[in-house]
UniProtKB/TrEMBL annotation, chain A:
GO cellular component: Golgi membrane; palmitoyltransferase complex
Biased composition annotated in UniProt, kind: Low complexity: 142-155
Subcellular location, principal: Golgi
Record has DNA damage as a keyword: no
Spans traversing the lipid bilayer: none
PANTHER family given in the database record: GOLGI AUTOANTIGEN, GOLGIN SUBFAMILY A, 7, GOLGIN SUBFAMILY A MEMBER 7B
Biased composition, class Gly residues, residue ranges: 156-167
Protein name according to UniProt: Golgin subfamily A member 7B
Listed Pfam families: Erf4
Membrane topology reported for the UniProt record: Lipid-anchor
Assigned keywords, A-Z: Membrane
Length: 167, 477
């Protein structure tokens, strides 16, 4: 895990940030956390529309699961109230668990899909759940976005052989 | 240059530079240690933090201490003076139940006061620029030409939720389009999700994350107040059956005090509980109710798009629904390469944005020292102006008139938050607000002037911080 994160940070440092695209929230279903699936034009040449939409839809699904109102969430709420919320000192809420899942998913998507295309997704939770920030990096090395040097088998495998060792 | 008169050079009158203070002219290694600050230390809103960021409150906490004192003193007197008699005469269950209620009240009060109400973090500079660009584009398209000169129209976005058209407003301070039901609290200078009102009695905003605690606080406080009132009366009556009324009062003078406090509190607290029970069951916020956003009077087709249709579901969701975690990450460490949200306004925003980059800051001490003088003055002059309207509104009548118990606290507290710092846009016109227009009309000019101060203060506060640091650097040179 640490090496993969290291790779993404290397990516940030080795490539230069060209621009950032922000996917805004979609409030048409109310106040629940959903993001717009509209494909931003800046990403047109970078990533396939379908991959992008799938990522956003999966994220939306995760958030819907976190905010789902049903038997289990009521149970958690009542239990928490009954213990005067001290139970949250020991265990984390369902929402927090799902947020952790989301962050792992985003990491995975970054390594497998986005970083090889010179893109980087930022977890919305770091932006106050307002936007999904997608950083677009310019290729410095000829082959593009693969991380410079460092380590072994990483998720950002694809990127082609190219200038990986150019540093 | 040795200070003080020339004289013999043997005394080198150099004063030793203290190496304990955090002066930035140190080695980079030490700079890194200093730079590892937590995010709450540079939080742009007007909040107070305690326990290294674990506790978060509004800036004005005087009334909160009053609330604490009232509850503690009244309950304390009850336990000390009335309970011994009642436990013996009637049943020991009385102090037991009172004890449980008391702990519940205190627990929920502290939870409401100390937790993050659902503050939305401000936009990062990149986001803000992107939004501005988008808004600029749409305005250009709408106007046909680029709008130079005249004031652009208020920035709103319309969205259809569940069949109702809802306007999302752009917040100039936080540089975001506010989600539906969010509002900007001018006292705390934050946008808060599902903003209900700013409650001076708990010293915090009431929003999405702490509404249930607030509701349980006022509900349990109603029970506690009624309980204490009833049993204090019982105590006095029982005693006066034995020794006569006046002697009973002399024997337990505390009971009189308790009875008085409880009598006046009961009307407001119970009324408020009833009001919020209604709000919860119809899934509205105080904000929406007072503005009449979803009332039928606005039009036959007007309904609340957020309601789940039945009272039971609305209540369950409000009280037992999932709690979202705090978005502002108060105790996280500032990463040196992430941009911090800029303080609003006028060209000096750079300094706000580079708060975490102490190496850059070291290069610009002279520049930073300039705004420091003005910000200090503004800060000082603004403060009393801010303090008094707040005090006059909140400490007004501690016991509101019986005629409108339910709405007065909400209205009193509500006048305060209703600020959109976009001057031209009035949230609150007397004809829109159905209930106590007098109070609100009286409140709004005060609130307006306060917004002026707040706007100035908000931008100056973060500058002030930077400029203080700048001064420290200057002095160490």
């Amino acid at each position: 895990m640490a090496t993969e994160v290291h790779n993404l940070q290397e990516l940030r440092r080795s490539a230069s940030l060209a621009t950032k695209v922000f996917i805004q929230r979609d409030y048409s279903d109310g106040t629940i956390c959903q993001f717009q699936t509209k494909f931003p034009p800046e990403l047109d040449s970078r990533i396939e529309r379908q991959l992008f939409e799938e990522t956003v839809k999966t994220l939306n699904g995760f958030y819907a699961e976190a905010e789902k109102i049903g038997g289990s969430s009521y149970l958690e709420g009542c239990l928490a109230c009954a213990t005067a919320y001290f139970i949250f000192l020991c265990m984390e809420t369902h929402y927090e668990k799902v947020l952790k899942k989301i962050s792992r998913y985003i990491q995975e998507q970054n390594e497998k899909i986005f970083a090889p295309r010179g893109l980087l997704l930022t977890d919305p939770v770091e932006r106050g759940m307002r936007v999904i920030e997608i950083s677009i990096y310019e290729d410095r090395c000829s082959s593009g976005s693969s991380s410079s040097g460092s380590s072994s088998g990483s998720g950002s495998s694809s990127g082609g052989g190219g200038g990986a060792g150019s540093r | 240059m040795p200070p003080g008169g020339g004289g013999p050079m043997k005394d080198c009158e150099y004063s030793q530079i203290s190496t304990h203070s955090s002066s930035p002219m140190e080695s980079p290694h030490k700079k890194k240690k200093i730079a590892a600050r937590r995010k709450w230390e540079v939080f742009p809103g007007r909040n107070k933090f305690f326990c290294n960021g674990r506790i978060m409150m509004a800036r004005q906490t005087g009334v909160f201490y009053l609330t604490l004192v009232l509850i503690l003193v009244t309950s304390g007197l009850f336990f000390a003076f009335d309970c011994p008699y009642l436990a013996v005469k009637i049943t020991p269950a009385i102090p037991a139940v009172a004890g449980i209620l008391f702990f519940f009240v205190m627990g929920t009060l502290l939870r409401t006061s100390f937790s993050d109400p659902g503050v939305l973090p401000r936009a990062t500079p990149d986001e803000a620029a992107d939004l501005e660009r988008q808004i600029g584009n749409t305005e250009d398209i709408a106007n046909g030409t680029s709008s130079g000169g005249y004031r652009p129209p208020p920035r709103t976005k319309e969205v259809i939720i569940n069949g109702q058209t809802v306007k999302l407003k752009y917040c100039f301070t936080c540089k975001i389009f506010r989600p539906p039901r969010a509002s900007h609290c001018s006292l705390c200078d934050n946008c808060v999700e599902r903003f209900d009102h700013h409650c001076p009695w708990v010293g915090n905003c009431v929003g999405k994350r702490n509404y249930r605690f607030f509701y349980m606080f006022i509900l349990s406080l109603s029970f506690l107040t009624v309980f204490i009132f009833a049993f204090v009366l019982t105590h006095v009556i029982l005693r006066s059956q034995q020794t006569g009324f006046l002697n009973a009062l002399k024997d337990s003078p505390a009971s009189v005090l308790e009875a008085v406090v409880c009598f006046f509190s009961v009307w407001s607290i119970v009324g408020l509980s009833g009001f919020h029970t209604y709000l919860i069951s119809s899934n509205q916020t105080t904000n929406e109710d007072i503005k009449g956003s979803w009332s039928n009077k606005r039009g036959k087709e007007n309904y609340n798009p957020y309601s789940y249709g039945n009272i039971f579901t609305n209540c369950c969701v409000a009280l037992c629904g999932p709690i979202s975690p705090s978005l502002i990450d108060r105790r996280g460490y500032i990463q040196p390469d992430t941009p911090q949200p800029a303080a609003p306004s006028n060209g000096i925003t750079m300094y706000g944005a580079t708060q975490s980059q102490s190496d850059m800051a070291a290069a610009t001490p002279l520049l930073q020292s300039e705004p420091s003088l003005t910000s200090d003055e503004l800060h000082l002059s603004g403060k009393p102006g801010l303090g008094t309207p707040c005090a006059s509104l909140t400490l007004g009548p501690p016991t509101p008139p019986a005629s409108m118990p339910n709405l007065t606290e909400a209205a009193l507290a509500d006048v305060i938050p209703r600020k959109d710092e976009h001057m031209g846009h009035q949230f609150l016109t007397p004809d829109e607000a159905p209930s106590p227009p007098r109070l609100l009309a009286a409140g709004s000019p005060l609130a307006h002037s306060r917004t002026m101060h707040v706007l100035g203060l908000a931008s100056q506060d973060s500058l002030h911080e930077d400029s203080v640091r700048g001064l420290v650097k200057l002095s160490s040179v």
